[in-house]
Amino acid sequence: MIASQPIADRLREAGCEHVSGLFEFAQLKSPPRALPAHFVIPENERAQGSQRVGAYDQKLTFAFSVVIVMKPAGRAGHAAVDEQLHDEIARVKDALFGWQHPEAASGCFLAGGRLLDIDASALSWAVEFTTHYRERKV
Predict the structure, then answer these.
(1) What is the pLDDT of residues 24-34, one digit of tens each?
(2) In DSSP terms, which residues pair with 62 in a beta bridge?
(3) Which residues contact 134 (CB under 8 A, 6 or more apart)?
(4) Per residue in 83-95, pLDDT tens?
(5) How far apart, in Å, do the first and last CA atoms of the chain sit?
(6) Nearest Cα to 71, choosing from 126, 117, 120, 128?
(7) Could you give the CA distance from residue 43 to residue 131 in angstroms, rounded to a whole number?
(8) Concatenated DSSP letters for 42-104?
(9) What's the pLDDT band for 119 if we cut at 50, 70, 90?
């Protein structure tokens, strides 16, 4: 697994003020006070077979999401929330699509997006990415 901190740092550089990680997201019992909030969530990693005979050398695909938590429509109106969600998704994509994590062997690729949750207090949307890295052992 590659480290989440460089991803969080990249998001902060792009103007995402409130960026946290997996454990902070898991502990949420109510929406964060400062919204929108962004959470870097490692999702999974998949290994390919070794490319070399007699050596341990594997390419891995690492998948992660950036979860955006924001206020639902309420008094702001649906059009305003749609626009804000669109802007936040675009900010995350602009920051990470094509960017290469220091531990990765490739840039980040978009893998999709999905609604995680919506209720009267918050809307949560995940922007999904993949990147590749290598594990080698002599």
Answers:
(1) 999 988 888 88
(2) 45, 131
(3) 57, 58, 59, 60, 105
(4) 889 999 999 999 9
(5) 19
(6) 120
(7) 12
(8) EEEEEEPPPSSTTSEEEEEEEEEEEEEEE--SGGG-HHHHHHHHHHHHHHHHHHHBT---TT-
(9) confident
CB contact set of 6 (below 8 Å; sequence gap of 6+): 101, 102, 103
pLDDT in tens, 51-98: 666 678 889 999 999 999 998 766 655 677 788 899 999 999 999 999
Report residue 87 as tokens: 């802007």
Tokens standing for 28?
């949420």
Computed from CA positions of residues 106, 100, 89, 42, in that sequence, does the dihedral angle turn out positive or negative?
Answer: positive
Tell me if the pTM is above 0.85. Answer: yes
Residues making up the chain, counted from first to last: 138
Q: Which residue in 101, 112, 122, 108 sits closest to 25, CA to CA? A: 122
